[in-house]
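Quick sanity check, Flagellar motor switch protein FliN:
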Amino acid sequence: MSNSDDLRRERQALREEIESAEASLFGGTSGQQARLRDRSPSAPDLDMVLDIPVRVTLEVGGTNMPIRDLLQLQQGAIVELERHAGEPLDVLVNGALIARGEVVVVEDKLGIRLTEVVSASERLQSLR
Protein backbone atom coordinates (compact mmCIF):
# COMPACT_ATOMS: atom_id res chain seq x y z
CA MET A 1 0.00 0.00 0.00
CA SER A 2 1.21 3.51 -0.69
CA ASN A 3 1.22 6.36 1.78
CA SER A 4 -1.42 8.20 -0.26
CA ASP A 5 -3.81 5.22 0.07
CA ASP A 6 -3.23 5.18 3.83
CA LEU A 7 -3.86 8.93 4.04
CA ARG A 8 -7.08 8.62 2.02
CA ARG A 9 -8.33 5.87 4.35
CA GLU A 10 -7.48 7.98 7.41
CA ARG A 11 -9.28 11.01 5.95
CA GLN A 12 -12.35 8.89 5.19
CA ALA A 13 -12.35 7.49 8.73
CA LEU A 14 -12.11 11.03 10.13
CA ARG A 15 -14.98 12.21 7.91
CA GLU A 16 -17.15 9.34 9.13
CA GLU A 17 -16.22 10.11 12.74
CA ILE A 18 -17.12 13.79 12.26
CA GLU A 19 -20.42 12.89 10.59
CA SER A 20 -21.26 10.59 13.49
CA ALA A 21 -20.39 13.30 16.03
CA GLU A 22 -22.47 15.87 14.13
CA ALA A 23 -25.43 13.51 14.03
CA SER A 24 -25.29 12.97 17.79
CA LEU A 25 -24.76 16.68 18.55
CA PHE A 26 -27.23 18.24 16.15
CA GLY A 27 -29.79 15.46 15.80
CA GLY A 28 -32.02 16.49 12.95
CA THR A 29 -32.67 14.86 9.62
CA SER A 30 -30.06 13.75 7.16
CA GLY A 31 -30.97 16.72 4.91
CA GLN A 32 -30.24 19.16 7.73
CA GLN A 33 -26.96 17.38 8.49
CA ALA A 34 -25.96 17.58 4.82
CA ARG A 35 -26.60 21.35 4.81
CA LEU A 36 -24.45 21.74 7.94
CA ARG A 37 -21.65 19.71 6.35
CA ASP A 38 -21.81 21.80 3.17
CA ARG A 39 -21.29 24.98 5.21
CA SER A 40 -18.27 23.67 7.11
CA PRO A 41 -14.86 23.89 5.41
CA SER A 42 -13.66 20.60 4.02
CA ALA A 43 -10.49 18.94 5.24
CA PRO A 44 -7.38 20.24 3.44
CA ASP A 45 -6.25 18.19 0.48
CA LEU A 46 -2.53 17.52 0.97
CA ASP A 47 -2.14 16.43 -2.66
CA MET A 48 -2.08 20.12 -3.59
CA VAL A 49 1.14 20.79 -1.64
CA LEU A 50 3.10 17.58 -2.22
CA ASP A 51 4.84 18.92 -5.36
CA ILE A 52 5.88 22.29 -3.88
CA PRO A 53 9.68 22.49 -3.80
CA VAL A 54 11.37 23.21 -0.47
CA ARG A 55 15.00 24.02 0.38
CA VAL A 56 16.80 21.24 2.30
CA THR A 57 19.97 22.41 4.06
CA LEU A 58 22.53 20.39 6.00
CA GLU A 59 24.14 22.48 8.69
CA VAL A 60 27.65 21.38 9.68
CA GLY A 61 28.05 24.11 12.28
CA GLY A 62 28.52 27.80 12.73
CA THR A 63 30.34 30.47 14.67
CA ASN A 64 30.14 34.17 15.41
CA MET A 65 33.07 36.39 14.49
CA PRO A 66 33.67 40.10 14.09
CA ILE A 67 33.76 41.46 10.54
CA ARG A 68 37.41 42.44 11.15
CA ASP A 69 38.36 38.75 11.59
CA LEU A 70 36.18 37.69 8.68
CA LEU A 71 37.92 40.13 6.34
CA GLN A 72 41.34 38.81 7.39
CA LEU A 73 40.55 35.21 6.33
CA GLN A 74 42.74 33.89 3.52
CA GLN A 75 42.91 30.68 1.54
CA GLY A 76 43.88 27.84 3.87
CA ALA A 77 42.54 29.59 6.99
CA ILE A 78 40.68 27.43 9.49
CA VAL A 79 37.45 28.63 11.08
CA GLU A 80 36.57 26.82 14.31
CA LEU A 81 32.88 25.86 14.48
CA GLU A 82 30.67 25.57 17.56
CA ARG A 83 30.20 21.86 16.93
CA HIS A 84 32.42 18.96 17.89
CA ALA A 85 33.73 16.37 15.42
CA GLY A 86 31.37 13.40 15.23
CA GLU A 87 28.27 15.35 16.27
CA PRO A 88 25.27 14.83 13.98
CA LEU A 89 24.48 17.44 11.34
CA ASP A 90 21.22 19.39 11.46
CA VAL A 91 18.80 18.85 8.57
CA LEU A 92 16.78 22.01 7.94
CA VAL A 93 13.81 22.41 5.60
CA ASN A 94 13.18 26.04 4.72
CA GLY A 95 15.21 26.94 7.82
CA ALA A 96 13.26 24.71 10.25
CA LEU A 97 15.05 21.82 11.97
CA ILE A 98 13.40 18.51 11.02
CA ALA A 99 16.11 15.88 11.61
CA ARG A 100 19.72 15.12 12.48
CA GLY A 101 22.08 12.80 10.67
CA GLU A 102 25.59 11.81 9.62
CA VAL A 103 27.45 12.29 6.36
CA VAL A 104 27.80 9.24 4.09
CA VAL A 105 29.42 8.70 0.69
CA VAL A 106 27.30 6.94 -1.94
CA GLU A 107 28.90 6.31 -5.34
CA ASP A 108 31.34 9.24 -4.99
CA LYS A 109 28.58 11.62 -3.86
CA LEU A 110 27.93 12.99 -0.41
CA GLY A 111 24.65 12.20 1.29
CA ILE A 112 23.20 12.09 4.77
CA ARG A 113 21.87 9.19 6.81
CA LEU A 114 19.11 10.37 9.12
CA THR A 115 19.78 9.24 12.66
CA GLU A 116 16.99 11.16 14.39
CA VAL A 117 13.77 12.78 13.19
CA VAL A 118 12.77 15.72 15.34
CA SER A 119 9.45 15.42 17.19
CA ALA A 120 6.52 17.61 16.19
CA SER A 121 6.73 19.61 19.44
CA GLU A 122 10.46 20.23 18.92
CA ARG A 123 9.78 21.37 15.34
CA LEU A 124 7.17 23.84 16.58
CA GLN A 125 9.63 25.24 19.12
CA SER A 126 12.27 25.75 16.42
CA LEU A 127 9.80 27.85 14.40
CA ARG A 128 9.35 30.33 17.25
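Posting the structure with no commentary besides this: The first strand starts at residue 56 and ends at 59.
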